[in-house]
Write a structure and sequence with these properties.
single chain; about 725 residues; alpha/beta; 2-enoyl-CoA Hydratase, Chain A, domain 1; Rossmann fold; N-(1-d-carboxylethyl)-l-norvaline Dehydrogenase, domain 2; 3 domains; 8-stranded mixed β-sheet; 7-stranded mixed β-sheet; 30 helices; about 10% strand; globular; EC 4.2.1.17; 3HC_DH_C
């Protein structure tokens, strides 16, 4: 054994072949500071081994290398540039030192080789993958670019255009896809991987493979003429500008780095990568996107714990076969949990099955599913008009009309036919779980399970805990939601729960602006183009449904009478009063239709302006910063209140709830990350300027204390109730 560490080893095999193995003590191989120290030792050990003739790089895990341990590097990213760039360079120098060992090298790639794992295999002269391999450079999803030599080696191996596609999308590629573009040189069955790598390195040792030429290409400038360089990178920059936009600097920084390095050797190109990576590491976008990744891990970690704590859901049921019920049935069946879909009318069951079939057909048309699997999913959905089919289910999701009386009757009926251990969950967006719990006897087995529409697209599920809901019930429902492919967060019962509760102060801020003369199209433009929401507030209200929003406003007003009282001459209520319900009937703030080619259209509704006339002030232009402040301060304040009251448990879940439930701009990281990026003191100063507008603009005493003490919501338990 040349070297044996906690994560890495180097062993001299027969015929002078050194096996450099990644096999960490934990569950996955990753690059952290300790691994880097061992890496240096391995390089030195191989260099000092006179009998070494070739190297294979292998993994002792089911996945090759998952990437870098981003959690370890966050503090490092806070260093000033003159310290951060040398830190990045030290890592790329290490990879270079391995690449420069004057022996042929073959990487044997199994499972995930992502980020630093992909960059590791690029240092080798040849790469052989097994059929389980998934290879990619996902750094862009964290607001970064490859930082261990990926921007230098990949374009010199597969060409600049292919490299830009790989790095700007951050997608993982299957073995055959990697083979097609030249990232790997061969694909074999898993049981043949190690032998194939040994056979390949032997061929290189014997001179049958020109490994020196393969390596030399990675040390030289790109093989592009000046004209090809201009055409390639101008095309790439145009595509990235259109797709990524100004809020996500990583893809453009990456392609500009490739362009600047195109005519340079490895050392010059690596210096440009070092600087580009360091600059991105210090951006707000990277901080936000890394924060999202870590917050998502919090949610996934809680779901895994829940799966161990709660009884498994092997069979489910949904009551109500409308759009929501059909979507829930589809999602459950598609992810492997059989589900009974119960309604009172055949026509409703037909609608539910049609909804599921339509979603499956799209999957087949896009090549993501074959007809056999589609049939299997549909067979997992059992339509019924009778409660008899629900006797043996583990969980029932009630998804009937949003009316407490109707829901209460249905819940009482179904409880009478299900087993004593069956869980009942209500898919409600506004109705109190404790109120609905009055209709059931087994209150410990009852909770809320709030899906977002459309079910198959929206990642979030709010699991609402009532006063008497047991921990085991919550755990089982969280685990079921995760099994359905959703990201569940647990919230405590209150009007609107979490997501809708914090959304309506945002809508209130919008309504007040329109009443003061703001043009709703101008507000939408600011919130979409400048703040980054996928839809501005007027458009979002149309999508949610003006009738639904007006109803929910009443619920929120009853729940928070001083803070969310009904607004006189609310533009939303004015539209509702004229039967303008938004997209569902083609008229709201905007008019919806289709053009001559059948494509959907959306134009500001003249009728909306007519209805507002006399009820709102004369038209007035508002500064973009004021528009953002007037809408975002109420939302952020309400999120903080939800944290302080324990409605939502952690800042991570608060942020992910709005990212997954509302499409909060990912580059801002969620409402709490946004608040801390602005800075608590600056946010409070701004909010105080608008405090006269009402309670929704008034920050809590808790936030003022947080600002004074310099604490973070991410590291501090702020519950006050």
């Amino acid at each position: 054994m040349l070297f044996q560490g906690k994560s890495l080893s180097a062993e001299l095999l027969a015929d002078g072949i050194v096996e450099f193995k990644f096999d960490a003590e934990g569950s996955v191989n990753k690059f952290d500071q300790a691994t880097f120290e061992e890496y240096r030792a391995v390089v030195d050990a191989i260099k000092n081994c006179s009998d070494a003739k070739g190297i294979i790089v292998t993994s002792g895990k089911s996945a090759f290398i998952a990437g870098a341990d981003i959690t370890e590097f966050l503090e490092t990213f806070k260093k000033p540039m003159d310290e951060l760039i040398p830190w990045v360079k030290a890592a790329t120098d290490l990879f270079d030192s391995f690449e420069d060992i004057d022996l042929p090298k073959v990487a044997a790639v199994n499972g995930f080789a992502l980020g630093g794992g992909c960059e590791m295999i690029l240092t080798c002269d040849y790469r052989v993958a097994d059929t389980t391999a998934s290879i990619g450079l996902p750094e862009v999803k964290l607001g970064l670019m490859p930082g261990f030599g990926g921007t230098v080696r990949l374009p010199r191996i597969i060409g600049a255009d292919n490299a830009v596609e790989w790095m700007s999308t951050g997608k993982a590629h299957k073995a055959e896809q990697a083979l097609a573009v030249g990232v790997v040189d061969a694909v074999v069955a898993p049981e043949q991987l190690r032998d194939a790598a040994i056979a390949m390195v032997k061929q290189a040792i014997e001179g049958k493979l020109n490994w020196q030429a393969k390596r030399q290409a990675k040390l030289e400038p790109l093989k592009l003429t000046p004209t090809e360089t201009i055409m390639t990178f101008n095309t790439c920059k145009g595509m990235i500008a259109a797709k990524a936009g100004k809020h996500y600097p990583a893809p453009m920084t990456m392609v500009k780095s490739l362009e600047a390095a195109a005519g340079l050797d490895r050392a010059g190109a690596m210096a440009i990568e070092n600087e580009g990576f360091a600059k991105l590491a210090k951006t707000d976008a990277a901080t936000a996107q890394i924060g999202i990744f870590m917050s998502d891990q919090v949610i996934k970690g809680k779901a895994k714990k829940a799966a161990k704590a709660g009884a498994p859901v092997e069979k489910a049921a949904v009551l109500g076969a409308g759009i929501m019920g059909g979507g829930i049935a589809y999602q459950s069946a598609a992810k492997g949990t059989p589900i009974v879909m119960k309604d009172i009318a055949d026509s409703a069951l037909d609608l539910g099955l049609t909804t599921a079939a339509g979603l499956l057909t799209k999957q087949v048309e896009r090549g993501r599913m074959n007809a056999k699997k589609m049939a299997g999913v549909l067979n997992n959905i059992t339509p019924t008009l009778s409660y008899d089919s629900l006797k043996d289910v583990d969980v029932v999701v009630e998804a009937v009309v949003e009316n407490p009386k109707v829901k209460g009757i249905v819940l009482a009926e179904v409880e009478g036919v299900t087993g004593d251990d069956a869980i009942l969950a209500s898919n409600t967006s506004t109705i109190s779980i404790d109120l609905l719990a009055e209709s059931v006897k087994r209150k410990d087995k009852f909770c809320g399970m709030h899906f977002f529409n459309p079910v198959h697209k929206m990642p979030l599920v709010e699991v609402i805990r009532g006063k008497e809901t047991s921990d085991e019930t919550v755990a089982a429902v969280v685990a079921y939601a995760a099994k359905m492919g959703k990201s569940p967060i647990v919230v405590n019962d209150c009007p609107g729960f979490y997501v809708n509760r914090v959304l309506f102060p945002y809508f209130a801020g919008f309504s007040h602006l329109v009443k003061e003369g703001a043009d709703f199209t101008a507000v939408d433009k600011v919130m979409e183009k400048q703040f980054g929401w996928p839809m501005g507030p007027a458009y979002l209200l149309d999508v949610v449904g003006i009738d639904t929003a007006d109803h929910c406003t009443g619920v929120m007003s009853a729940g928070f009478p001083t803070r969310m009282q009904k607004i006189d001459n609310d533009p939303v209520s004015i539209l509702f009063g004229d039967d303008r319900y938004g997209q569902k009937n083609g008229k709201g703030f905007y008019d919806y239709g289709k053009d001559k080619r059948g494509r959907p259209t959306k134009v500001p509704a003249e009728k909306a302006y007519e209805l507002f006339a006399g009820n709102v002030a004369d038209k007035k232009d508002f500064d973009a910063d004021e528009v953002i402040a007037r809408l975002m301060i109420p939302m952020v304040n309400e999120v903080v209140r939800c944290l302080e009251e324990g409605i939502v448990d952690t800042a991570a879940e608060a942020d992910m709830g709005l990212i997954y439930g509302l499409g909060f701009p990912p580059f801002r990281g969620g409402p709490i990350r946004y608040l801390e990026t602005v800075g608590l003191e600056k946010f409070i100063e701004l909010a105080d300027k608008f405090a006269h507008l009402g309670e929704i603009y008034q920050v809590t005493d808790g936030m003022r204390e947080m600002a004074k003490s310099g604490k973070s919501y991410y590291t501090t338990d702020v519950k006050t109730a």
